[in-house]
Amino acid sequence: MSVNKVILLGNVGRDPEVRYLDTGVAVATFPLATSDRAYTLSNGTQVPERTEWHNLVLWRGLAETAEKYVHKGDKLYVEGKIRTRSYDDQTGAKRYVTEIFVDNMEMLTPKAAPAQQAAPQPQQPVQRQPAASDNGTDDLPF
C-alpha cells in the first residue's frame, strides 16, 4: 500500500492562470506560499522565516471556481497529490517541475462586503418547516 497525499494551508502568490483544452476542460495553475515562522534556538541563534512555494494545478470544476473566486493574497486550504514531471528546456537541459494536483480546495479568505452596503444587515433566523410526517417530536434523547 502507498499514499500520495499533500495538505497545504497558505497564501496565493498570483491570480490563477486558466486555460481551456480543446475538449473544453479547464486547467488552472498558480503558486501557493507556505511559511515556517522565525524562531530563536536556546543558544541564541536566530533562525529566519522560511517560505516554500508550491505550484498548484486544478482541473475542471475546481479550476473554474479558482478562476472566479481565487485572487492573489487569498488564504487557501488544499488537498491533493504531488507529481513531478520533466522537460527539456531551450538549451537541451533536462528540467524538473514538482506540482500539486489539487483534489479539494477550501477558500479561507472572507468575501469582501459590497462597497455600497454601509452597515451589515441583521440576518433573519431561518425557521425549519416541519415535514408532513413530522409530528413535532424528535427521536433524539436530548
Which helices and strands occur, and which strands form pairs?
Elements: E1 6-12, E2 17-20, E3 26-36, E4 39-40, E5 46-47, E6 50-59, H1 60-69, E7 75-88, E8 94-107
Parallel strand pairs: 6-8
Antiparallel strand pairs: 1-3, 1-7, 2-3, 3-6, 4-5, 7-8
Features:
five-stranded mixed beta barrel, OB fold (Dihydrolipoamide Acetyltransferase, E2P), 142 residues, 1 helix, mainly beta
User: Biggest sheet, strands in spatial order?
Assistant: 1-3-6-8-7
User: pLDDT under 50 segments (min length 5)?
Assistant: 115-119, 126-133
Structural class: mainly beta
Largest beta-sheet characterization: 5 strands, mixed, barrel
User: Tally of extended strands?
Assistant: 8
The CATH homologous superfamily name of the domain at 6-35 and 50-107 equals Nucleic acid-binding proteins
Number of helices: 1
- Under CATH, the topology of the domain at 6-35 and 50-107 is which? OB fold (Dihydrolipoamide Acetyltransferase, E2P)
Mean pLDDT across every amino acid position? 85
Helix content: under 10%
What is the C-level CATH assignment of the domain at 6-35 and 50-107?
Mainly Beta
Distance between the termini: 43 Å
Query: Which band does the percent of strand residues land in?
Result: over 45%
- Spatial extent as radius of gyration: 23 Å
**Helix and strand element order:** EEEEEEHEE
